[in-house]
Amino acid sequence: MKDTNFLIIGSGVAGLTFAIKTAERFPDKESIIVTKSSKDESNTKYAQGGVAAVLDSEEDSFQKHIKDTLSAGDGLCDEEVVKMVIKEGPEHLKELMRWGANFDTDNDGKLDLAKEGGHSEYRVIHYKDITGYEIERALLRKVNELPNITILQYHFAIDLITGCLSGSMDAENRYCCGAHVLNERTGNVFTIQADHTILASGGIGVVYGHTTNPVIATGDGIAMAYRAKAQIKDMEFVQFHPTALYDDKESVSFLISEAVRGFGAYLRTKNGHRFMPDYSEMAELAPRDVVSQSIVNELKKHGDSCVYLDCTHLNKAKFLAHFPNIYKACINNNIDITKDWIPVVPAAHYVCGGIAVDKNGKTSIENLFACGESSGTGLHGANRLASNSLLEALVYAHNIYEYLCEHDPKTPEIEVSGWFNETTRAPIDLDLIRQNLNELQELMRDNAGIIRANTDLLKALRHLTTMKKRVEELYNKAEISTPLCELRNMIAVAYLIIEQSLERKENRGVFFNYDNILTTSQN
Ligand code: FAD
Ligand code: SIN
Predict the structure, then answer these.
(1) Is the dihedral of CA 511, 516, 517, 518 positive or negative?
(2) So which residues are the catalytic ones?
(3) Using CA atoms, how far apart are residues 255 and 487, in angstroms rounded to an integer?
(4) Which residues line ligand 1 (CB under 6 A)?
(5) What's the confidence (pLDDT) of residue 419?
(6) Which residues line ligand 2 (CB under 6 A)?
(7) 137: CA distance to ligand 1 center in Å?
């Protein structure tokens, strides 16, 4: 058993930002960051396009950024949250710069602004095409300077420890006082008891197999919070990025940033037709939901496996200066962007919903906070505007910090039972986990992708119920391991996506169910 003031689960932009702020403000308080892989491994590290913020532009305004966010979110954003994030975000981005994160500037020393889908102005602040890598680098350097932060790498948070404030088990009486954690190197499970627990555990892309996310994105925090009976919302809004580099492996795919379309690239079918103007006045720079749904339509129409991103008309020197990493990845795949079109397809990229939080990042469980991609703040509504998520993570990490500066609720005195380390559990065959994972990912691709239908969703729900039972039985008798816990978590996340998809009766943003059109046209 370990005790700490702040237990932070995840070392991406959200978790690290919160840790730095609290450690600086409260030198006498301790934080533990638990992270299941190496400390830099996260969705944050792979962010390419940048951070959308109105910071250094005469043409742009908060009003325009707010309007674009609301419009991308298709009527389902929480307007107060949108205003707050967009107005407060730039200050936090400046703070990130003071902490040492670099962003590109033009010849006059002004921030170089890029454009992405759904944005009416150039406002995406970036560091080449590796913005996330640079942010993660700067944050980790800062964390290393703070002696009251301990990072436990290769430690997997299994479940939250919750209790009840009064005798009743009602949701509103629940509080959180830490988590059970697996040391992946030794196999030992131990308990961390904390005054405050912050879930900053990121996204869910791996549930679909074919994703832009790294393998850590298995929705653990959302599943843990769900098991602890926290409120989870908007899980049906899974955003598919239109342009993942095509291969036939249905696994983690390299992203070709939307900023490449902002730079002037065209989307074409195999026979060369530039199809996006057929779907939207904004053409290639329509919001992501529109572009991904249009690509799926074109693929169906022509029976093709991918569409193409044409960069051949773009200035090579400028392209190389802005997108050196994408250029290199293309070369490694035998694609010379000056001559060849880049084959691309949509891939699971971002979950717009998550653990429901208020503006202070408070979940429905006392002492449990969430920020970053694992949280559902209401900023994104039915479709996230490109490059708004790093901004959201910065704002909510700050808001939780600020809330805890003003309120330091006393953790109730309770007896926390440690994890029972049984020695009789049998090690599990990794192949068995892999088979189950493949089954789950195929189920989600086939039945809960960009275009959904009730029969498919219901079929998936039945299948998932059987899988859940099978995996729970395994979980109860097998040796605890990260792959097994991740599988269990991904089944829970899949369940939430399917269940909440069935509940949504109208198509909005990234959510499209054929049966909703039929119902609407029959009414
Ligand atoms: P993450 O950065 O994903 O960090 C989560 C952390 O939690 C990781 O350290 C992980 O190991 C840890 N973790 C998870 N589960 C457990 C567990 N059970 N136990 C212990 N640790 C755990 N957004 C933008 O705004 N602009 C962009 O340009 C942009 N580009 C993107 C490009 C790509 C390829 C991808 C995948 C995403 C992109 N996004 C972008 C989205 C953005 O990167 C993420 O939403 C954001 O970085 C999430 O930050 P986070 O801190 O919430 O989570
Ligand atoms: C990209 O660079 O296209 C990703 C931006 C994002 O997901 O916000």
Answers:
(1) positive
(2) 288
(3) 24
(4) 9-15, 34-37, 41-44, 46-51, 131-132, 156-157, 200-203, 212-213, 216, 220-221, 255, 350, 372-374, 387-390, 393
(5) 80
(6) 48-49, 257-259, 386-387, 389
(7) 14
163 pLDDT above the threshold of 70: yes
Residue pair 19/149 in contact (Cβ under 8 Å)? The answer is yes
Phi, psi (rounded to 5 degrees) for 408: -125, 75
CA–centroid distance, residue 47 to ligand 2 (Å): 6
Are β-strands 149-152 and 124-125 bridged in parallel, bridged antiparallel, or unpaired? unpaired
Over residues 229-258, the pLDDT tens digits come to 999 999 999 999 999 999 988 899 999 999
Q: For residue 37, give the ligand 1 atom closest to its CA.
A: 11
Residues 68, 42, 510, 519, CA torsion sign: negative
Cβ(277)–Cβ(262) below 8 Å? no
Q: What is residue 518's predicted lDDT score, i.e. its pLDDT?
A: 64
| pLDDT, tens digit, 9 for 90 and up, residues 320-333 | 999 999 999 999 99
119 alpha carbon, closest ligand: 2
Options 3.90.1720.10, 3.50.50.60, 3.90.470.20, 3.40.50.740; CATH for 2-236+352-406 is 3.50.50.60
For the domain made up of 430-479+481-522, give the CATH fold: Methane Monooxygenase Hydroxylase; Chain G, domain 1 (1.20.58)
Which one-letter DSSP state was computed for residue 371?
A: -
Going by pLDDT thresholds of 50, 70 and 90, the confidence category of residue 301 is very high
pLDDT at 168 over 70: no
Decide if pLDDT at 89 tops 60: yes
Domains of the chain by residue range:
2-236+352-406, 238-349, 430-479+481-522
What is the per-residue pLDDT across 390-408, written as a single tens digit (0 to 9) for each? 999 999 999 999 999 999 7
- CB-based burial label for 425 (10 Å; 0-12, 13-18, 19+): middle
Closest ligand by atom to 205 CA:
1
φ, ψ at 414 (rounded to 5°)? -145, 160
| Closest atom, ligand 1, to C-alpha of 372 | 52
Q: Which ligand is nearest to the CA of 391?
A: 1
**pLDDT tens per residue, range 142-158:** 999 999 999 999 999 99
Q: What is the pLDDT of residue 408?
A: 74
pLDDT at 63: 97
Distance from the CA of 42 to the center of ligand 1, in angstroms?
5
The CATH number given to 238-349 is 3.90.700.10
CA 407 / ligand 2 centre spacing (Å): 35
**Mean of the pLDDT values across residues 415-426?**
76
**Atom from ligand 2 closest to the CA of residue 349:** 7
